[in-house]
Amino acid sequence: MADSLSTGHEAIAAKQLKQLKSLLRAIRPANSFYEKKLGDAGVDGGIATLEDFSLRCSFTTKGELVADQQANPPYGTNLTFPVQQYTRIHQTSGTTGKPLRWLDTANDWQWMVDSWKEIFRAAGVYEKDRILFAFSFGPFIGFWLAFDAATQIGCLCFPGGGLTTVTRLRVLMENEVTVLCCTPTYALRLAEVAGQEGIDLKQNKLRKIIVAGEPGGSIETTRKRLEDAWGAQVFDHHGMTEVGPVTYQWVGKANYLKVMEDAYYAEVLNPVTNKPVVEGEDGELILTTLGRTGSPLIRYRTGDIVRPERHKEGLLLAGGILGRTDDMVIVRGVNVYPSAIEHIMRSVDGVAEYQVTTTTKEEMVELSLRVEPECDDVGRGLAKEIETATRGRLGLRVPVEITAPGSLPRFELKARRWIKE
Fold it and tell me: Residue 97's pLDDT is what?
């Protein structure tokens, strides 16, 4: 088993090194953003090993990219070709800072579409499927790639941009949609509105819900709530505007994500020491895009916290995306990620929506929760149940305030439940 694991990893690494060399030859010296960075390190298409590449090549950070676009508006200097060769533009959601604009050539876009075809194959989506894409179709990349991939596969595709939640539900029911693509939060919202409108979800033809944008798809309690509400299987994946689709749910276990190593050279490092973590230890995911030549990213610090495991199938991330380096808060010595709160809230019956407030007093961080119940008559008991669950999982006492039904915001794209005071 160990020998086969080692042999499989060596084959993947050899292919990645070949792709990396080709990428470096393409972007040097054409890409001015990377020319100085790589030139100073002596990194070019003659690099001997992946280990040597990691040792010599510096990181790329989001802060660098933002600063570059501010200094060289509107698109920055991370462009390998003249702007006239780019055909797509998207921008980040701005959840964790100033939005980034991102350009793609037709070839780069197809490279990412091909990765989405792999995601659909892993999810068991075929040309006979009818897919509803319940997102805004705005400048955020969302499921744009998935839409193009699905049309190329031959699926019947329903764009859900500009529609109300009720209209989307009607489209889903009346057209016998079999696959839904959206965030975990919005899938829960659709189910909530179906109940309010008297729409019987038992009559739907849905068999797959493909989610992204939040860690909920790899959180067991959130997954169960979704599958119970819809009677369909949840399939998780993750990606970023800056790099494209990166992982998809491993068929062997629901709460594992498989890195698409044909498309990315992935490293998992301790975010403080920048040294590789041992298997099963949490670290930051560092990515090099091996086929996005027009706007490449070399050793990009994604900020995603993951727990790597090497299996014969490849690099797997246990528990999916556990959190982000900029999302973690330390409360009385306990590291708290949003995914931990999500797990707790979805494990308690009667929670319609929630909001987390972090307050800093004399350098001490405190958490408090505002929770919206599904109905008026569950208030006091619900608060006690959540406080007990929080103490049990985190070892912390977190105050819980029960709000009126319908009082907390709802989200179509990434949920923004955490408020800093």
Answer: 59
pTM of the predicted model, to two decimals? 0.86
Number of C-beta neighbours around residue 352 at 10 A: 19
CA-wise closest residue to 247 among 234, 236, 237:
237
Tokens of 100: 């980034």
For tokens 């990315």, the residue is 264
Helices 338-347 and 379-394: angle between axes, nearest 10 degrees: 130
Q: Which amino acid is at 58?
A: S
Please give the pLDDT value at position 17: 97
Question: What is the DSSP annotation of 222-257?
Answer: HHHHHHHHHSSEEEEEEEETTTEEEEEE-TT-TTEE
CA distances 391 to 174, 336, 394, 407, Å, are 45, 12, 5, 26
Question: What's the CA gap between 131 and 179, in Å, rounded?
Answer: 5
The residue with tokens 């996005």 is: 292
Contact 295, 211 (CB under 8 A): no
Residue 390 and residue 332 in contact, taking contact as beta carbons nearer than 8 Å:
no
From residue 207, give the alpha-carbon distance in Å to each of 155, 231, 408, 415: 14, 7, 30, 24
H or E segment and range at residue 156: strand 156-159
Whether 45 and 28 have beta carbons less than 8 Å apart is answered as yes
Residues 28-46 have pLDDT tens digits of 999 999 998 999 899 999 9
Give the residues across from 89 on adjacent strands. 103
Burial 208-228 (b: 16+ CB within 10 A, else e): bbbbbbbbbbbbeebbebbee
pLDDT higher than 70, residue 305: yes
Q: Render the burial of 58-91: b for 16+ CB within 10 Å, e for the rest.
A: eebebebbbebbeeeeebbebbbbeeeebebebe
| Side chain identity at residue 134, one-letter code | A
State whether residue 211 is helix, strand or coil: strand
Other CB atoms within a 10 A radius of the CB of residue 145 amount to 24
Per-residue pLDDT at 4: 61
Q: Which two tokens stand for residue 10?
A: 């060596």
Task: Output the six-digit token pair for 236.
Answer: 């998780």
What order of strands is seen across the sheet that includes strand 364-373? 400-402, 364-373, 351-361, 418-420
Contact criterion met (CB below 8 Å) for 322 and 282: yes
Q: Which residue from 44, 112, 10 is spatially nearest to 298, judged by alpha carbons?
A: 44
